[in-house]
Amino acid sequence: MKSVLTFLVTILASATVLANDHAVKSVDADTSLRWLQNGNARFTNSKLRKDGQSQNDVHRLSTGQQPHAIVLSCSDSRVPPEVVFDQKLGEIFVVRTAGEALGDNAIGSIEYAVEHLGSKLLVVMGHTSCGAVKAAHSSLDGSSLGTPALDNLVKDIHPRISQFKGKTPSKNFATESWANTEGVAKDLLTRSELIRKKVESGDLRIVSSLYDLESGQVAFKAESTLQTRVPASIEEAKKDSHHTHGRSGATCDKCKAQKTAEPSQAPHAEHSH
C-alpha cells in the first residue's frame, strides 16, 4: 500500500511540474518580434535550432497550441515562415496566400488566432520578386490573367499598388512589395472589426516586413512606422481608404520567457547551437 501511495505522489508531482511548464502565458509583442528577428538571424547564419521538433514535442502539443505570433505571408515556396524565422512546432500560427491577398478565409484564420490562441503579434511578410505583385502590376490596365480566380486575387492587390501604374517597376519589385505589405496591414484594420479593436486596445500589434529572396534576410519597418493608425470606426476607415524538449538542455523561446527576460541583442543564447 505504501509503495502504491508513493507511486501516486510521484506521478502527481510530475504532472504538476509538467502542467506548470506548459502553462505559458501569452508572450508580449515586443518579445515575440525579437524572437522572430533572432530566428531570422540564425537562419541567415546557418545556425538553426535542433529542439522543438521531436516526438516529445508532437505529443506535448497534441492537447493544444499557444503560438506567440501570427504570420501572414505569401504562398511562395521559397518563403516558409517557420524556416526563415527558425520557429518550431506550435510556435507561430501561419496563414499563407499568394501576395498576402486578403479574403474571408485568410482574415477569419487570423481572427481565430487572435481571439482564441492569444497571439499578441501579427507580422505581415511580403517578399522581393513576388509573382503575385508582378501579376497585379501587369494587370493594372484592366487586362485579365486568364481565369476569374486569378483576376479576383490580383484585384485585392491592385488598390495597394495603384500608384505604380504605368511606371517602371523597382528592382526585384521591392518598392511595390513593400507597398502591398503595408497596405495589407492597414486593410486588416478596415476589414476586420475584431482585429481593429484588438489593435485599439493594445492587445495586438501589426508589423510589416519584407523577405529578401537573395539574402534570406527579413527587414522590418522602423519602430516609429510600425504602429498603424487605428480608425475611429470601420466606416471612417473605408472612407479614408516551457516545456521540456526531447533533447536534454534544449529549451525554446517560451521556456526562456518563463525564467528570465531574454537578452535584447543577438540570437537566443539558448539556441546558439
Could you explain how this protein is built, in words?
There is one protein chain. This protein is of the alpha/beta class and 273 residues long. The protein contains twelve helices and five strands. The protein has helices at residues 2-22, 29-44, 55-60, 81-84, 104-117, 131-138, 148-161, 174-191, 193-201, 223-226, 234-240, 253-259, and strands at 69-73, 92-96, 121-127, 205-211, 218-220. Residues 4-24, 228-251 and 255-273 have low confidence and may be disordered.
What class, by secondary structure content? Answer: alpha/beta
SSE order: HHHEHEHEHHHHEEHHH
Uncertain stretches of 5 or more adjacent residues: 4-24, 228-251, 255-273
Strand content: 5-15%
3D shape: globular
The percent range for helix content is 40-55%
Number of helices: 12
Mean pLDDT comes to 81
Distance between the termini: 47 Å
Strand tally, please?
A: 5
Major β-sheet, in short? 5 strands, mixed
Radius of gyration: 21 Å
With strands numbered from the N-terminus, the spatial order across the biggest sheet is: 2-1-3-4-5
